[in-house]
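Methods — Computational structure assignment.
A single polypeptide chain was analysed. Its primary sequence is given first, followed by the predicted tertiary structure written as structure tokens.
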Amino acid sequence: MNNEKNKRVRIGENIPKETQVEELKTTVENLKPETAEVSYYDESGEFMWDAYEATCPSKTKKHNPHIKTQNGDRVYSRESYAQEMYDMLVDFDSKRGKIVNDLNLGEIHEGTIYAVSAEFISVDIGYREHVYVKYDKEPSDVQSLKPGDETSVLITQLPNNAHVLGSISGGVRHRVFMDLRDAVEDGRTAWVGKVTHMIENGGYMVNIQGIDCFMPGSLAGINKLHDFSSIIGTEMYVVPVSFSPERGTLVVSHRKYLQALIPGEIEKLKENQGESLTGNVTGSAKYGVFVEFNGCLTGMIHNNDLDEETLVKFKARQILPGEEITFIVKDVISDTKITLTQKANAVMNPWHDIITRYQMPCVVEATVKTKKDYGLFITIEEGVTGLLHISEVGEDIMDVFKNGDKITVQITRIDVDSMKVFLKMPQ
């Protein structure tokens, strides 16, 4: 039997009042019933922070003012190692990542998969407890996540009554949506999207990682599509071009992505000019046929450059959009102006590789094309003509030459962009 609990209070004896009061306090404390040890773990073994905080002894204690802390933290320990222990915890948290103190519904947090079971996927977001995601509510790609994988999670339930619940698929979709919206201002990021279906009034719905975006028909290609349903079900690169806050709609463009490829394709074309290529007819006019090729380039075959079979169909207006056609590149004038031909003996553009044929300065034999008061126009080769100024020739010598005469000149410089040849008389 506990003698302390049965100790009686001596009242009425000749004992000092102060002693009687102290004995009374001691007796009252000893009369308090013994309480069982409180458990702060629920049936699943998860620690219940809210229950712990409600009875936490630190609420009635004073914190240690000698411990240097951060972000309003309080340390109640008076042990000699308290400062060292606190610093170690801060260092651990900084290496682990950001610390989340408060949660709100609808927030998106980045986290790491902690565990995966048949019922829940738990995600560590730096909060005091994990976010639980219902396994059977998530798509297969989420179910395949494993511990250690990084992910985004949408907060769907706060820990007021139970655990923190979330949605990984919802978090990923929201993150993708925000990235797409931010990409509108950047204008240089392309995303892979799947064209799911056509909509009324012209256009398509393109799904990008769960986000439905609108693509007008005019932005589905470099040229107007000959078969509007041909791209349904296909995947393509698209660039976000606008966002409507009122409708919450993102507009994307495949055309803008293709336009970004043109400079690179033009350079390849110049290097391999003269090779036989295949493209598709996009339309025709009275002077020729327009052809789309190499994914993003458009050129024109003049009716004089059509082969006999194609010319017959052209005159009969039997060449239809989408029809496959074979040709070679005749001339690359600019990124948007390319001339094509179906005639193998057509005169090719002499400027695309002219630098490789002439090493400046060099002396060549050329032909006088025409005479002017200010000098002679000299043809170096077919399609390449330069001016030999009168100051280089001299008035007395100019009178000697006539159109068609051979002349020896020195090439000092060639400007391919402006298609100019600079000439002088050789020393």
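Note: Confidence is low (pLDDT under 50) at residues 1-12.
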